From TrEMBL:
This is Riboflavin transporter. It is found in: Cell membrane. Keywords: Cell membrane, Membrane, Transmembrane, Transmembrane helix, Transport. Belongs to the prokaryotic riboflavin transporter (P-RFT) (TC 2.A.87) family. GO terms for cellular component: plasma membrane. It comes from Enterococcus pallens ATCC BAA-351. InterPro entries: ECF_trnsprt_substrate-spec, RibU. It is a multi-pass membrane protein. The chain crosses the membrane at residues 7-26, 46-65, 108-130, 162-186.
Length: 199
């Protein structure tokens, strides 16, 4: 019972930190203007490595529930669903590799797999779900969506280029930066990562 309470408290704390980091979001130059960069993936990934995949998903869920309770939704929950899907597709492959031997090399391979997984999910979900939904919600056409991105990146003039030089590099930067921060911090956090009372 003591162990469970400790784990739940740490999960809640990391969820709150992830929410705060999600609120400090900003667009990246030359990237689609409807995508915001944040570092919420850092506590989500640390929590997953430290506490396991269920706690990692709970951290993501807590982050989004706090967001809904304090800010609400402007996308009829599709933005929150997308956020959950991308976070899950990032942290779960990362954990799958890391839990094999708890080494930095395995963590690196896991975060690489997680980044690739998140990019694939981001491309498919944006093209077939998120962007069409936003277009319908706000009465826009796909050409209008492309024009919005073209205003910040003149090379984007088609759906294909929106994916190749918009969605892919944005998510590569976002999840790559989060992975790099966790990887560079692992020597200091290693003692915590290897404490079995949390697992």
């Amino acid at each position: 019972m003591k162990f469970t309470a400790r784990k739940l408290v740490l999960t809640a704390i990391l969820g709150a930190i992830a929410y705060l980091l999600m609120m400090f979001k900003f667009p990246l130059p030359f990237m689609p203007p409807f995508m915001d960069f944040d570092l919420a993936g850092v506590p989500e990934l640390i929590g997953t490595f430290l506490l396991g995949p269920v706690s990692g998903l709970m951290i993501v869920l807590i982050k989004l529930l706090i967001k809904l309770a304090t800010v609400g939704t402007s996308s009829m929950f599709t933005g929150e669903i997308q956020n959950f899907l991308l976070s899950a597709s990032f942290i779960l492959p990362s954990w799958f590799f890391y839990q094999r031997s708890n080494t930095k090399q395995q963590a690196f391979l896991g975060m690489l797999a997680g980044t690739i997984s998140a990019i694939v999910v981001a491309c498919l979900s944006n093209i077939y779900f998120i962007i069409p939904f936003y277009a319908t919600l706000y009465g826009l056409s796909m050409d209008a969506i492309i024009a919005m991105t073209q205003a910040v990146n003149p090379f984007v003039d088609s759906v294909g280029k929106l994916v190749i030089i918009g969605i892919v590099p944005f998510n590569l930067i976002k999840f790559g930066v989060c992975s790099s921060i966790v990887y560079l911090s692992m020597d200091r956090l290693r003692a915590i990562f290897l404490r079995r009372e949390f697992s």
